[in-house]
Amino acid sequence: MLTMNISLPHSLKKYVDEQVAGRGYGTSSEYMRELIRKDRDRQRLRALLLEGAESEPAGVADAGYFERSRTSVRKDASD
Questions:
Q1: Which among 1, 8, 13, 49 has the fewest CB atoms less than 10 Å away?
Q2: Which pLDDT does position 39 carry in this prediction?
Q3: For residues 65 and 50, what is the distance between their CA atoms, to the nearest angstrom?
């Protein structure tokens, strides 16, 4: 694992320390890694949402559409 040093103002350092102590993180590095992973996931989700918003509609999202989706998910989960 590589090391990266960051500089924080006192108020942010205090906040990180409070999060580590209060939320069960072993170290500030664990807390920062989780924040970075969550940020990466948010960016991926945003890209997918934008891609979907720019795409053509695939069809009508009626009751049948949602029932077929639920059936498909249940089938995949049981496999």
A1: 1
A2: 98
A3: 22
